[in-house]
Amino acid sequence: ADFMKMPFSDNTFDAVYAIEATCHAPDPVGCYKEIYRVLKPGQCFAVYEWCITDHYDPNNATHKRIKDEIELGNGLPDIRSTRQCLQAVKDAGFEVIWDKDLAEDSPLPWYLPLDPSRFSLSSFRLTTVGRIITRNMVKVLEYVGLAPEGSQRVSSFLEKAAEGLVEGGKKEIFTPMYFFVVRKPLSE
User: Fold this and answer.
1) pLDDT tens-digit series, residues 8-20
2) Structural contact between residues 44 and 14, judged by C-beta atoms closer than 8 angstroms
3) I need a labelling partner for 113 at 20 to 30 A (CA). Which of 10, 107, 131, 141 fits?
4) What angle do CA 89, 79, 153 make, to 5 degrees?
5) What residues are paired with 96 via a beta bridge?
6) What is the span of the domain harbouring residue 164?
7) Contact call for residues 157 and 71 (beta carbons, < 8 A)
8) Backbone angles phi, psi at 7, to 5 degrees
9) Considering the entire predicted model, what is its pTM?
10) Is residue 4 domain-resident?
11) Does some domain include residue 5?
12) Alpha-carbon distances, residue 187 vs 39, 67, 94 (angstroms)
């Protein structure tokens, strides 16, 4: 269903969660209001969200390029900051119980599996050599008609997105691990 207009009655659910989903909403307040509507009073909504961190500088051309690569390759509208997400959920009527960027305390960088400089047999396709092989295989498959036209283009922007994710993680300007729990008040 469309999370901007869910086909459920008011106060239907005992709990709601979203994992890397509401970041795709064109209007976060509208999305969170819709979740608020279907959640029973006093119950919780937990979210694991992709966000820009406080380290992001909108006047920095490198930061802007990284953000653009992540948005394009992952089908995202303007990625919101952690502060914007938290404000949007408050504007929708929720009470914030807890929020944290879980990437900050992670013992391993979240982007490690996507990092092409790290060699591993299980993630060979993500290494520089693996990406070159993949790129050429997609090119051949598209040329002989086994892959649809445009596959090279899609493969290319997905590769760029992965590069943006790694660079965004290394510069700490992007997190895919912003987590918050909020509650719908018992009375409105």
Assistant:
1) 999 999 999 999 9
2) no
3) 141
4) 145
5) 182
6) 13-184
7) no
8) -85, 50
9) 0.86
10) no
11) no
12) 13, 39, 11
